[in-house]
């Protein structure tokens, strides 16, 4: 099929593993293992995102359909539970870290909102932020997920100062005491564990510093975050990825000209969270707007996303 549809690749974006307490939906290491077994037996090749980009930019083709794994954010449970499964299969994963989180400066604003929504003892919450009313239903898990999304979506539209105030107001309305350091379920990866994983074959990259979406930041703030993240990764990690990963990364989360700031910071390419398979030729044409599939929650979907069927479907 590669002959017919060209040399497409499937790039996966992975977030957290399934937590023990079922507080949110995560990826079960066993499902990941089953998918990797299937991919290997079916003749897929694994490539790191840096390898894929290098091939694309050089105009090289790949002999076989290729799968690439990226993980976002840099929590310790990702390093402990998901990275080992990927490394065991030589799947060449890359983990994009929120540098301020790993540096223990602060935990990300969206993680705080997630924590507050899931640990609130209330069932209904109403509050205002700058005239905007919020009505949060917390009566069951699906409602909590919906409420969390509502807050995150709004938070993405705010400047840094407003965002801090908004998070504070929301957390107060939810009647939650926010710990200064991330609680256990949000423990960031340590630089030591990242370095140890790097020696085993994990590549580590920049997901900027604060996890604030670029669309809400000034160009100067973005360039400062990019430079600071590069500096810290250069100090802590042997061989950081030359590919950047946008915070959040949907179409609304960064503006076209901001991709140029990423390039100016020394990156050859950048990962979005926009779904789709890509051909190497597309990566070559738009290296700063690479699409990824969110890793699915079922084996069948993995098979479909990884196949040329999905490529054709997403092209129509
Ligand atoms: Zn992220």
CATH class of the largest domain equals Alpha Beta
CATH architecture tag of the largest domain = Alpha-Beta Barrel
Distinct bound molecules: zinc ion
Largest sheet: 7 strands, mixed
When the domains are counted, the total is 2
Residue windows where pLDDT falls under 50 for at least 5 positions = none
Write down how many β-strands occur, each being a DSSP E stretch of 2 or more residues: 11
Mean pLDDT: 92
**CATH-level-4 superfamily name of the largest domain:** Glycoside hydrolase/deacetylase
Helix-strand sequence: HEHEHEHEHHEEHHHEHEHEEHEHH
- What's the gyration radius in Å? 19 Å
Polypeptide structure, described:
With about 325 residues, this protein is α/β, with parallel strands linked by helices. It has two domains: about 1-105 and about 185-315, TIM Barrel; about 110-175. The protein has 14 helices and eleven strands. Strands 1, 2, 3, 4, 7, 10 and 11 form a seven-stranded mixed β-sheet that branches. The chain has a two-stranded antiparallel sheet with strand order 5-6. Helix 11 links the parallel strand 8 and strand 9 (about 270). The protein is globular and about 55 Å long. The mean pLDDT is about 90. Bound molecules: zinc ion. Zinc ion (ZN) binds next to strand 3.
Compact overview of the structure:
With 316 residues, the protein is an alpha/beta fold.
Layout of SSEs?
Layout: H1 2-5, E1 8-14, H2 29-41, E2 45-46, H3 49-58, E3 66-73, H4 76-88, E4 94-97, H5 99-102, H6 109-119, E5 124-129, E6 132-137, H7 141-155, H8 160-173, H9 191-200, E7 203-206, H10 219-236, E8 243-245, H11 258-264, E9 269-271, E10 278-279, H12 280-285, E11 293-294, H13 299-306, H14 308-315
Parallel strand pairs: 1-3, 1-11, 2-3, 3-4, 4-7, 8-9
Antiparallel strand pairs: 1-10, 5-6
């Amino acid at each position: 099929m590669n002959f017919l549809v060209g040399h497409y690749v499937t790039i996966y974006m992975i977030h957290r593993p399934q937590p023990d307490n079922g507080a949110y939906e995560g990826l079960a290491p066993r499902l990941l293992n089953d998918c990797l077994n299937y991919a290997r037996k079916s003749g897929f090749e694994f490539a790191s995102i840096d390898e894929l980009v290098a091939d694309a930019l050089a105009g090289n083709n790949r002999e076989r359909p290729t799968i690439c794994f990226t993980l976002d954010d840099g929590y310790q449970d990702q390093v402990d539970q998901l990275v080992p499964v990927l490394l065991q299969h030589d799947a060449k994963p890359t983990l994009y870290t929120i540098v301020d989180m790993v540096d223990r400066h602060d935990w990300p604003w969206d993680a705080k909102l997630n924590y507050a929504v899931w640990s609130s003892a209330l069932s209904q919450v109403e509050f205002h932020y700058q005239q905007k009313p919020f009505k949060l239903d917390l009566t069951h898990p699906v409602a909590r997920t919906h409420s969390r999304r509502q807050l995150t979506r709004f938070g993405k539209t705010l400047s840094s100062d407003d965002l801090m105030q908004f998070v504070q107001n929301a957390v107060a309305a939810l009647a939650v005491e926010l710990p200064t350091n991330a609680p256990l379920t949000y423990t960031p990866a340590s630089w030591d564990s990242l370095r140890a994983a790097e020696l085993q074959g994990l590549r580590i990259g920049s997901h900027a510093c604060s996890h604030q979406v670029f669309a809400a930041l000034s160009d100067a703030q973005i360039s400062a975050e990019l430079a600071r993240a590069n500096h810290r990764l250069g100090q802590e990690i042997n061989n950081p990825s030359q590919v950047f990963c946008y915070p959040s990364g949907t179409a609304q989360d960064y503006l076209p000209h901001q991709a140029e700031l990423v390039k100016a910071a020394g990156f050859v390419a950048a990962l979005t969270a926009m779904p789709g398979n890509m051909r190497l030729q597309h990566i070559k044409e738009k290296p700063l707007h690479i699409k990824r599939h969110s890793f699915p929650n079922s084996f069948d979907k993995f098979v479909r996303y990884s196949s040329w069927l999905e490529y054709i479907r997403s092209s129509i």
